[in-house]
Amino acid sequence: MWRFIGLRSLQAIPVILAVITVTFFLVRAAPGGPFSSEKAVSPQVQAALEAQYRLDQPPLQQYISYLTDLVQGNMGPSFYYPGRSVDELIFQGLPITAELGLYALLIAVIIGSFAGVIAALKPNTIQDYVPMSIAMVGICMPSFLLGPVLVLVFGIMLDWLPVSGWGNSYGDKVLPSITLGAMYAAYIARLSRSGMLEVMSQDYLRTARAKGLPEYVVILKHALRGGLLPVISYLGPAFAALLSGSFVVETIFQIPGLGRFYVQAAFNRDYTMILGTTVFLSTLIVVFNLLSDIAAAWVNPRLRYQFKK
Amino acid sequence: MTPTSMQVFFKMKLSRALIPALLLSLFLISCGGGNNESRVITGNQQGVLHLGNGTEPQGIDPHIVTGVPEHHIIGALFEGLVTKNPYTLEPEPGVAESWDISEDGRVYTFQLRDNARWSNGDPVVAEDFRWSWERALTPELGSLYNYMFFPILNAEGFATGAIDDFSEVGVKVLGERTLEVTLREPTPFLLQLFDHYSTYPVHPPTVLAFGSPTDRFSQWSREGNIVTNGAFTLTQWQVNSHIRVEKSPYYWDADEVKLNAIVFYPTENIVTEERMFRDEQIHFTNEVALDKVPVYRSEQPELLEIASYLGTYYYLINTTREPFDDVRVRKALSMAIDRDLLVETILENLYLPSYALVPPGTLGYEPPETFTYDPEQARQLLAEAGYSGGENFPSFDILYNTQENHQKIAVAIQQMWMETLGVSATPMNQEWKVYLDSTDNFNYSISRRGWIGDYVDPNTFLDMMITDGGNNKTGFSDSRYDQLILRDAPATLDQQERFKLYQEAETILMNAMPVIPIYTYQSKHLKHPSLKGMPPNIMDYYNWKYVYLDASQ
Predict the structure, then answer these.
(1) Cα–Cα distance between A106 and A77 in angstroms, integer?
(2) Cβ–Cβ under 8 Å, residues B528 and B283
(3) Which of A138, B50, B86, B167 is the most buried (most CB within 10 A)?
């Protein structure tokens, strides 16, 4: 097991290095620079700005100094926000996005696996069709539609919840969490349904039933463990996706999270910020994939056996 | 259930269920339920204005930033030599209590008031201005707005590095509270430049305490560090969430300041901003989506505030490219656009059709009328240029930055050109920075552009089009035009005489037609009835000193 973890961690290093290298040169190859604007920039000003942000050096030298700084944990100054460092901006947005992602994931897991298991118990009946149709709608419904609809109903018509903000007024975290979680809940519902269906036909469940165990013990103790495996391996990537994919929800609800920085940085050609957020999020994705592999191995004895070999 | 399976069930269930249960309760606690309080109502009781402010400000260092959202915040935190009256837009005393202008209009002597103070209690002195302006003009800082100082003698030379010694620049401290400014040419709109934030003073000891004055990474303007001289001080700055400023007790005119605090919210999503307004989270929106305008007009017109805005929406023509190097082609394209129809069908009857680069309302200047919508003459001009009925006319692109309204306009104009002239154009969108790059490098035929004036004078529009001007981008060059804009008009003291020169210049410009004016912008906001003292004006300028909240509304 330890050897497996060690090997997988080593594999992550070239992946992240490749991400840094490709992003570094790609942003510089994109047309338009960080300082171009509708107002003309005089050549002197342009030169002064490039000197302050080290853009007057050859690209390879910029790349090496960026890597040197990065190893020391310094992602450099933001090109767009003078006086702010990329580290500062990322760590300001991260807790908010993580909190939002956690609530969304929680909603997704609880609602999703519940609906999936219910559906799998009586496949191809009304008990299956209703939750699965809702899940299908949920997957198809984009958050830029669901968010405003929820806001319209609960924020403006019923006036129960605030329409925007995060931690500024009472209850403003509810609607964004639901909006972000809905799609994942739907996905988890489908995953857990197919996982459960597969497990339900296995021999060991027939054995459990033959032993005379009541149905709910068979399901909760024997079937769930195997049936929710696909959900568990999905959790890691899902959380990483929630962290990097919350941009739309953050924009709809004016939430000061990481997602907005990520997208705005690209529009602003904020080179260091694009690099910083990309490197940071790709590291997170690699780490979460690793964690969910480990979790899957821990839950599934068959996988564990393979690693031992 | 057998005892063993019960135990297993509970053991498994409890430990695994505990974490999600804890998290869920955390969620519920932090979310709560209950009623949704209205920030507008509490704000009215406490004198706190809540306001949508466009994008997150890049920063609040007046010599570095360039945007409108930044302007609103900096205007609350700092004060220049003069300010503007929000009703008339005429200059009003700011830090300078009075000023004298020499007979030839070239020397301004400002008398600073005794009671002007920084937010740490230090007096605001003439040397603070001289020091700040030297900082703003130092080439290493890379200030994008340094051209605002260029009417001052030798300021341009210092900014471009031709002059090293700032004492050669026309700024002199004559006494602790006396500042003398010498100009290159008498510049009748000079006072307007001195209420622009790029000329505001910064507190030298504070800037120096956080490093070199020209260091863009300096922390001096951050919450807790910054020292300001305006009506408000910075108390809270949470990036992408809000900025809060509170009334400064040190401000010289603090008795006249009616608000206790202003909270600025970044609202780059104008749909969300409108929902925030409807939910009474903000008093005032920075924008209104064009498609919401008819809804408010018919249902709640009292909330909608629309006013003329000092900005023109126009198309650039690349005059270095065939067949657009022929003035007859350019005129034909311009005359074939039915601007009234465009405004009526696409622009919700909101914007005004425009036939000149300078928008109306610049303190007395009347833009010349050189052409009208004339399909007959447009066809004739095109035929004279050798493209009768659009025959042999090469197809070209209409470039615009990705945005729905720009697209609608481009499609409509494409159709008008096809129907009237028989020429075939293709609307082409590019992401903002790519679009800027294409236009900068003359890699376009026709390109969409907008320009908002920096100050209320035709010069802020017309000086764009001088030969090789940074914002010209069309290849237009005319020596008489350059002479009028660069030398004759700035040297003319009489306002009417000067405006005549600008009219002559604009006539030259419109006869050459390197730009196709399309419409004049309008500012549009949603405004809560309790918000007073914030009149609409052509600059969309707010003077926070005048603003108050009437809780009875």
Answers:
(1) 35
(2) yes
(3) B50
Say whether residue B236 is in contact with chain A using an 8 A CB cutoff: no
A-chain residues within 8 Å CB-CB of B272? 163-164, 251-254
Compare CB distances from B434 to A32, A42, A217 and report the shortest one's residue: A32
The alpha carbon torsion through B11, B12, B15, B16 (nearest 10 deg) reads: -170
| CB-based contact B172:B179 (threshold 8 Å) | yes
Q: Which residue of B has its CA nearest to A166?
A: B241
ipTM attached to this prediction = 0.85
Q: CB-CB: which of A93, A168, A170 is closest to B34?
A: A170
**Residue A83 in tokens:** 């006086």
Question: CA A286, A287, A293, A296: dihedral to nearest 10 degrees?
Answer: -140
Strand partners, B515: B316
Nearest to B222 among A83, A103, A253 (CB): A83
Percent helix, strand, coil in chain B (nearest 5)? 35, 20, 45
Give the tens place of pLDDT for each residue, B391-430: 899 999 999 999 889 999 999 999 999 999 999 999 999 9
Phi, psi of A77 (to 5 degrees): -80, 150
Chain A residues inside the 8 Å CB shell of B141: 48
d(CA A182, CA A104): 8
User: How many whole angstroms separate alpha carbon A95 and alpha carbon A98?
Assistant: 5
Query: B70, B76, B60, B74: which is closest to B219 by C-alpha?
Result: B60
Which among B87, B190, B94 is positioned nearest to B541, based on CA atoms? B87
Cis peptide before B323 (omega within 30 of 0): yes
Regions of chain B where pLDDT drops below 50: 1-18, 28-35
Q: Nearest Cα to A262, choosing from A93, A70, A135, A9? A: A93
Q: How far is B108 from chain A (nearest CA, A)?
A: 28
Mean pLDDT per segment of 10 residues, for chain A of length 309 residues?
78 90 92 85 88 90 93 90 91 91 92 89 86 84 88 86 83 90 89 89 85 83 83 84 85 89 90 92 85 76 62
A217/B272 Cβ within 8 A:
no
Burial class (CB in 10 A: 0-12, 13-18, 19+), B169: buried
In terms of CA atoms, which chain A residue is nearest residue B62? A82
- C-alpha B218/C-alpha A84 separation (Å) is 9
Chain A hits for B219, CB-CB cut-off 8 Å, are 83
Structure tokens at B45: 């009781």
